[in-house]
Specification:
By secondary structure, the protein is mainly alpha-helical. It folds into 2 domains: 1-52, no CATH class; 53-129, AhpD-like (Up-down Bundle). Helix content is 81%, strand content 0%. It has 7 helices and no strands. The protein has helices at 2-17, 21-31, 33-47, 55-69, 73-85, 90-104, 106-125. Helix 2 packs across helix 3 (33-47). The longest helix has 20 residues, at 106-125. The N and C termini lie far apart (36 Å).
């Protein structure tokens, strides 16, 4: 059963993180293979696979939560890119960040906008399939 949990999480992780997913896991595993496994098994095998929210809704929540932190720009960028793949528009992502400003403050929202700008630019550089 633990191996099935890992496989389920890895499939969802790759769906969410796209092409960058394997590199993200490799970078984590280089430091801590156990932590890389935890990243796959808890948020992706247990949370992202729950039936009550679609992937777009989960990414909206992830972007809002990470933007609120104000200090998780690499993770925020990955989830902004995942939100775009899940069907969020750039306008929706900007609205999420504006909403964050009302509750987490302007510094967190400004950090998130800067991260969104980089994520949008990266998306523009990727070839469309």
């Amino acid at each position: 059963m633990p191996e099935e949990r890992y496989k389920r999480g890895l499939a969802k992780f790759r769906e969410v993180q796209g092409e960058a997913g394997d590199e993200i896991l490799k970078a984590i595993a280089d430091v801590s293979p156990d932590f890389a496994r935890m990243v796959v098994e808890f948020p992706y095998a247990e949370v992202f696979t729950r039936p009550h929210l679609d992937l777009k809704s989960r990414e909206i929540a992830a972007v809002a939560a990470l933007a609120t932190l104000g200090s998780a720009q690499p993770q925020l960028r990955g989830h902004i890119e995942a939100a775009l793949r899940a069907g969020c528009t750039r306008e929706e992502i900007i609205e999420i960040i504006i909403q964050v400003a009302a509750f987490a403050g302007f510094p967190a929202a400004l950090n998130a906008l800067s991260t969104a700008k980089r994520a949008f630019a990266a998306a523009d550089r990727k070839p469309r399939t």
